Target: Glycogen debranching N-terminal domain-containing protein
Amino acid sequence: MLNTRTVLKENDLYIVGNRHYKIAEGESGLYRRDTRFLSLYEWRLDGERPQHLLQHERYPFWLHEHSANANVGYTMKVGIARDLTVTGSEVRDTLTVTRYLGEGPQELTLALAADFVDMFEVRGWPGGLGKRAVATKEVPGGLEFSYTAGDGLHSRALVQFSPAASWDGEKLTWHLAEAETRIQVSVFALQGREQPTPGDPLALAAEYDALHGALNLRLTDPLDQQVLDQSIEDLRSLSFQTDQGRFPAAGLPWFVAPFGRDSLIIALMVKDHLPEMALTVARYLAARQGSKYDKSTLEEPGKILHEERIGELTRLGHTPHRPYYATADATPLFVWLVGELSAAHPDIAHELRPQWEAALNWCLTDGDPDQDGFIEYTPDEGGITNAVWKDSGDSTFTAEGVDISGHVAVVEVQGYAYAAYLAAARMYRLLNDEAAASAWETRAADLRERFHAAFWWPERGYYVHGLNGDKKPLNVLVSNPAHTLWTGIIPPEFAPQVAATALGDKLWSGWGIRTLGEGELRYNPVSYHNGSVWPHDTAAAALGMHRYGLNAEAAQVARALFDVARAAGDHRLSELLAGFKREAHTPPVPYPAACHPQGWDAAIPLALAHLLGQRQAREPEKQDTGKLENELA
Model:
């Protein structure tokens, strides 16, 4: 594992590097979706790694760098100015090498290797396919690595370069005798019959610059504004093109793929500001809705997918992600999203009617296997144990510390169902079916009543984590009930108690709401789901508090999350952070393996900005594109 990862991305093409953006070790590489094309891409000057003077990420796809000869000391002998860009179709690396001192030519080399390994194998998937038979050949103006997968898919990494260089089977070599030499390398990750298509970094930069002006959001505090600006850029960077539009990836670098739950939560958070993204999520998931029963993928009619992959392992049937439907919450979330979108886009209720009706039917049938009126999941032996957002195997257990079993009903999923049933009522009303609308409103009201009776925990003034397969409550203090406020299922008279418990000493860290209360069995502040803080989970609670008119509490939570991002050098929220108590003049403790950025965390500043207080109109900003052109020229 890389201790520090850097990522440059556009569409489904992305570089994962070490802290110096090098592809040289471990998981680093040039990836296209789920396949690593290049496993080595490393520059050396006279046999040594250049010394970095500056590395600046101008945009999520653009690295600007200055470096020098190794051991530069007080006087630089050779300087290298570099712009590395990843557009949707091309990696372009432009170097200007300037010789200041010394006699004789300098030798600049670029080491290259390709392995075409499935991303799951890179990350340690057991029983992989082993080393690929990669062919390498020199072609006019460049070099080509190629591989034909077990299912016949032909992939190529085409490397083009200017001026010419010699290739010794491991590296390209340039002998630099001029005072200044400009070198350009382009890499194209191609599949099937695709041909290389040059990208346009300047046009992409202009698109990024236009994002902020289009949203016209301005916060009074400039540090909060930096967080919001980064959020907007990350949401754009995370997305990749599909037949339905630009779909938000779950996170970088390992989750550049469609995820049901993640994308639906992102869409619900940004639907008012980025409606096209939310509509794309709804349409994409509708197009891949379950239609049959499949025990290996857990597909069921009407069910919404959990995760979809397209790498070689999945295409050959070694993983169930084609797609994989191991989620109990994505299906009601889908109906909730379509219903929310129908307020501003009423045609979507008609367009996706077969899909949201099928999803509702799943909620009442396969989604409720014991027919007690609650949506449940059963741990998938050999697959996902907990088919909810806390999907680690040890996250859901009884007060005695015993792992759950049987048909398990988790608290927030019932809230999603409640929101889905009210959304159905809204859509049926749009479709002039008053009888159906009234029936779903009645079903929602009944669910709220039965939910409170089964899940309320009076001793804590809170709700339990869920119901085990034996219908006994999971009396464990967790963040989920606070998250559930977002859905509206909690009766208004109990919402203040839920908020107060969530903001009490056991759950509130000062940076966010702990996934598991301090002092509970399995509590560990540096765990994945048992004491850490997940910003999206905390943000859902803030939105829920605001929904119930608990505005001071909502503002407190929003402020804390913006402070987490402000404490980060890149102004980003990460996937999760450690649950240690907040200390004065000390930043939050990071979680070592967190994704950065993460899709639903990128959505948070946009979703919570209105809770921080007064905003002002933003003046459009302009970049000096002429300067950028000169640097690429």
Summary: The longest helix spans residues 434-455. Residues 37 and 115 are 6 Å apart (CA to CA). The longest strand covers residues 106-118. Confidence is low (pLDDT under 50) at residues 614-623.
